[in-house]
Amino acid sequence: MEPAGDPLRRLREAFRAGRTRPAEFRAAQLEGLGRFLQDNKQLLLDALAQDLHKSAFESELSEISISQGEVNLALRNLRAWMKDEKVPKNLATQLDSAFIRKEPFGLVLIIAPWNYPLNLTLVPLVGALAAGNCVVLKPSEISKSTEKVLAEVLPRYLDQSCFAVVLGGPEETGRLLENKFDYIFFTGSPRVGKIVMEAAAKHLTPVTLELGGKNPCYVDDDCDPQTVANRVAFFRYFNAGQTCVAPDYVLCSPETQERLLPALQSAITRFYGDDPRSSPDFGRIISEKQFQRLRGLLGCGRVAIGGQSDASECYIAPTVLADVREAEAVMQEEIFGPILPIVPVRGLEEAIEVIARREKPLALYAFSNSCQVVKRVLACTSSGGFCGNDGFMHMTLASLPFGGVGASGMGRYHGKFSFDTFSHHRACLLRPPGMEKVYALRYPPYSPRNLRLLLTAMEAHSCTLL
To answer: Is the pTM of this model over 0.85?
Structure first.
């Protein structure tokens, strides 16, 4: 790889020359990204299997198809998204043209994580390219096989005067962040997010931070335990639990816990067989470091289901911990693995109290046969996203923004939200050069009559004068 400064200079020159601004150029880049996905599908499936033991089903569903869908959506809507957006005017500006122009920021940096190394790299890239930016892509060094494909193959499909991949670990990323970018998009942990934000602040660079958090899952007494177990188990153990929007812990009454445990065992057995280690559909932990961290959490509460592990292949069985207390280690950090704690509460109100006193999560789930219960959880809590009676299906809709709030992140993307995130919305007003006698009402010497006329002319919309 060339030193970071060289590609940054090259990309900045290309942006200043206006290379990325035409719609035709942006569309060509998006089409190239689509061809990359189509031409290298098997290569990508193999890389994801090597990195995460991810099945072809999970890889197609959560990595390739979502990325391709974002490309297709952007290509269909690119010219409409790029159009100037007309805005309402007051009486004082009736003869003017007022609009919002969507301009690219310039040189943007995308730092991607390892858990969905294709999806969480390419989906923000779609937005950055559609918005007309030059892009520096920093894939995760932890998902080595996918990183290799992104570094060696993807650049062949994009204009390399406007796109670069930079490799390396924390040290190289730290040096990269010393450079000035026009926008930074980061997906990862809150701890690293703070480092990124601190580096960005030195240059007053705007950021989107897609972070994690402990996503609560309230299960009401009024529910079908097997339906809940099927859905919670699927979304908790998908990608071996290494999903930032996975249900991180269950809040329910002791009675519901006892009904839920055999249902969860039934679901896990149907999904992965009597020995999940031999299932082709159950993934592995990404690294020994993460494996050891997760194994240390197995001593919390009571192991009601699973609990087996094998360091030689970074395997941790689909696990349920019952009777977990809030103060235990498994409740202090995002789990990011196939472990599901159940925290008993007396009912809905206590569950809402538990959620409210913790940091705002990236996602929140509520299961109940009563729509009033689901709506109460929604009304009394705050989270990046919310889904009633299912797992993270809300993030499959490009018409919904995806992002966190508070400690779980800032900013949003997916679909048009990605385009808007990577675009500067420039306020524009074009006034004709004539009509000076009308506009002279503004000038000194001031008079009460002119003030009344001006206030009347501007009252339709508020106006701030700096």
So the answer is: yes
